[in-house]
Amino acid sequence: MRDILVGVEKNLIVGHMLRNIVVFCILVLPSLAIAESELGDLTLTVPIFDSRIILKTEGKFGGAVTSLVFRGKEHIDRLDHGRLLQSASSFDGLGECYNPTEGGASRGSKNEEASVVKAARIEANQLFTTAAMAFFLGPGQAYSRGCGSKKYLKQALNTVETSTHILDKRLTVGLPDFPNVIEHDVIFHVPDHFTSATFEASTGYVPKEFSEAVYYDPKQSKEIDPDNRRGERSLPVILFTTDKRYAMGVYSPELPQKGLKVGYGRFTFPNVNKWNCVFRENNVKPGPYEYRCLIILGTLAEVEDTIRQLDKVYGKKVPTNQN
């Protein structure tokens, strides 16, 4: 009899423990799952060609793209802070010293993750985010390199971490007849008046192995070797791997802007390379500034052919900014 009672007691204890575990799973684990998913954490997958494009964004980086995979190759990764597909702006020639940035502040700043996602969603082959952009530097942060074209200034001019500059973004994976194109539409909502502005509508920080670069003239079907030159030119830029199997280019029907011979940039760093698609405005009034950049993926030959066809279809047919 004693053995039976001991067995019953053990069963009651085990049953009580299992009941507690079930209650914990029901009440606690869902809240943990919610905590791990921020507004702006999205994944968009779209089949194209013989593969698919997978875009991932993260709320901690203002909804910027932290991963872009095509044909099994990661074209954008997040191995360290700042390796993103994102947008940014700067004003009055101050460069990084007044630099609202979608992905957040520079590495080591107190406000690394100060961009705030306001809205985020996916619809079919499109991904949308709205974010209040963080300033690249913390309030009053020292900047020994000097501020943009005003090198005599050596510290950030912003007084807060998160700006009131709002960025609306729409990424569309695949356009009619151009499945390997990602359309990057952005609207910069500028809250104040400035003498001038530089809008980095789209920029990609790509892995080191995308070490080769060409500027491409779509009208003449001609590659132009940038040599070791860094900076901007007037022709679409393509970064690619040495075997030419993976390439990433950018094209905009609105570039180059009238009177300018720049717009497409190529930059190299020790562990990462960068392309960008840039617009400039003067006498900047408060309001929206809208731009479009087309990001092309494929082999080098596929990217060049796509840019050539895009230029035939879209070249200078898109209205320029009305502000």
The CATH topology label of the largest domain is: Beta-galactosidase, Chain A, domain 5
Contiguous helical run count: 3
Oligomer: single chain
What is the CA-based Rg, rounded?
24 Å
Q: Provide mean pLDDT, rounded.
A: 87
User: Outline, from the CA principal axes?
Assistant: globular
What's the level 1 CATH class of the largest domain? Mainly Beta
Strand portion, in percent?
35-45%
Q: Helix- and strand-based class?
A: alpha+beta
Q: What is the count of β-strands? A: 19
The rounded distance between the terminal residues' Cα atoms is 91 Å
| Order of SSEs | HHEEEEEEEEEEEEEEEEEEEH
Spans with pLDDT under 50 lasting ≥5 residues? 1-36, 318-323
Major beta sheet, specifics?
10 strands, antiparallel
CATH level-two architecture of the largest domain: Distorted Sandwich
Q: Number of folding domains?
A: 2
Write the layout of secondary structure elements.
Blueprint: H1 2-27, H2 29-36, E1 42-48, E2 51-57, E3 65-70, E4 73-76, E5 85-91, E6 100-101, E7 116-123, E8 126-135, E9 162-175, E10 178-190, E11 194-207, E12 212-217, E13 222-224, E14 231-233, E15 237-240, E16 247-251, E17 264-268, E18 272-284, E19 287-298, H3 300-314
Antiparallel strand pairs: 1-2, 2-3, 3-4, 5-11, 6-8, 7-8, 8-9, 9-10, 10-19, 11-18, 12-13, 12-15, 14-17, 15-16, 16-19, 17-18
